[in-house]
């Protein structure tokens, strides 16, 4: 009888150990999934905040700002569900919701665009615009922004991206031209012209800039022709001088 009780207790302990181990593994798996989800949300939050901060360099409209703030609030609330005791998250939600309710944000337009001095910053601006367009479509898919606003804002961002590309090429062309590097300058202006010519949406900026770049390219072509002519004349003069020296009467000593 005692032996039977011992066997039953051993079996019970084994079952309890298996159950405890399974529960522990389940808890660890849930904790791991929670950490992964929290990390994913934190990355999403940081990316959105970076885009919002980039508004200092890339002018964005009030509609875009509100969309980004709503995205931040939704992300913070999702993080709070995973960490319900976080006072920091609760504080940030309150601060972001207050910003969202503030209707005093100025409406910004692409006319306020200021081109940075170095290529790294320009690349950062273009990458920021591309990421913003991706976010715009993602938020539309979630129903957080209406279709008309998406179409208008995506078109505006597309033209802003085009303007940055064109202005950066023109700036490089101007620098090369001032340094008398006409070949390099022509390449930059030709790239700008190709970008403008391939634009599907033609507005005043595209029309005016395209005309200006074409005029500059014509001027460079003229300068290159004149430069080649001067080089040929100089070469001819040097050859004539060499012939004069060769066939000049030899002096007797």
Mean pLDDT, to the nearest integer, reads 82
The rounded distance between the terminal residues' Cα atoms is 143 Å
Q: Give the C-alpha Rg.
A: 34 Å
Q: Percent helix among the residues?
A: over 70%
How many alpha or pi helices? Answer: 7
- Biggest β-sheet: count, sense, barrel? none
The overall strand count is 0
Low-confidence stretches: 105-111
Structural class: mainly alpha
Write the element-wise H/E pattern from the N-terminal end onward: HHHHHHH
Silhouette: elongated
Share in β-strands: under 5%
How would you characterize this protein structure?
There is one protein chain. The termini are far apart. The chain has 253 residues and is mostly helical. It is built from 7 helices and no strands.
Which key features would you list for this structure?
single chain, mainly alpha, Methane Monooxygenase Hydroxylase, Chain G, domain 1, 7 helices, 80% helix
Brief summary:
This protein is 80% helix and 0% strand. It is mostly helical and 253 residues long.
Blueprint of the fold:
Elements: H1 2-53, H2 62-82, H3 87-101, H4 119-141, H5 147-178, H6 182-197, H7 204-247
């Amino acid at each position: 009888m005692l032996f039977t009780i011992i066997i039953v207790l051993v079996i019970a302990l084994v079952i309890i150990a298996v159950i405890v181990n399974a529960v522990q593994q389940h808890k660890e798996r849930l904790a791991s999934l929670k950490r992964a989800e929290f990390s994913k949300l934190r990355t999403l939050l940081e990316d959105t905040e970076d885009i919002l901060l980039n508004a200092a360099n890339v002018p964005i409209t009030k509609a875009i700002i509100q969309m980004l703030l709503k995205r931040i609030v939704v992300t913070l609330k999702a993080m709070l569900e995973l960490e319900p005791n976080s006072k920091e998250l609760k504080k940030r939600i309150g601060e972001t919701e207050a910003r969202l309710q503030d209707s005093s944000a100025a409406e910004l337009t692409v006319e306020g665009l200021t081109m940075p001095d170095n290529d790294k910053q320009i690349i950062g601006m273009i990458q920021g615009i591309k990421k913003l367009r991706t976010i715009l479509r993602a938020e539309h898919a979630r129903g957080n922004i209406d279709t008309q606003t998406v179409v208008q804002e995506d078109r505006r961002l597309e033209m802003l991206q085009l303007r940055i590309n064109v202005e950066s090429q023109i700036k490089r062309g101007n620098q090369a031209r001032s340094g008398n590097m006409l070949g390099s300058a022509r390449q930059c202006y030709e790239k700008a012209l190709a970008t403008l010519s391939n634009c599907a949406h033609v507005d005043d900026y595209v029309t005016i800039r395209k005309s200006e770049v074409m005029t500059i390219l014509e001027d460079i072509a003229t300068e290159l022709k004149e430069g080649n002519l001067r080089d040929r004349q100089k070469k001819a003069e040097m050859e004539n001088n060499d012939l004069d020296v060769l066939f000049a009467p030899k002096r007797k000593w």
